[in-house]
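The protein record quoted in full:
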Amino acid sequence: MTCGWRACAMSALLAPGLGAGAAGADAITLPSGVVVHEIDRIWDEDAAAIRIRYLVPRLREPASLYSADPERVLTDMTWLCETQIRRLFAPGTDPRDEGWEGAIVTMMDREIPFGEIDAEATQFFEGFLFTMDGCTLDLDLYHD
């Protein structure tokens, strides 16, 4: 099952993953208290976006923090964009000056190779645009 932060929708075709050994990755504690492990980063030059993907093993559980308050997903994903992606650039560097327009943050309950479908997986994903002040939702992703 694939889910945007707003609601579960569509199919796993929308947010395929890529496995690269998150088990050894350092744990990152999000503002909500959820712990994630970075799986990988994909520098998608065609989309001018940095895809950063995280493993959240308990994401699917009904008792998870996100089930109780789905808005926490957006808060945590925004925080990941503003802290983890921005750290990829030298201090004071605007990613837009380097040709990057935004980021796509993905959280998944299991590692999935990029481009593959796993109908049993739960994934949340969100697109952001880089701004002078950080990251803002890329609302154009939801319009044709």
In short: Helices lie at 65-68, 71-85. The mean pLDDT is 80.
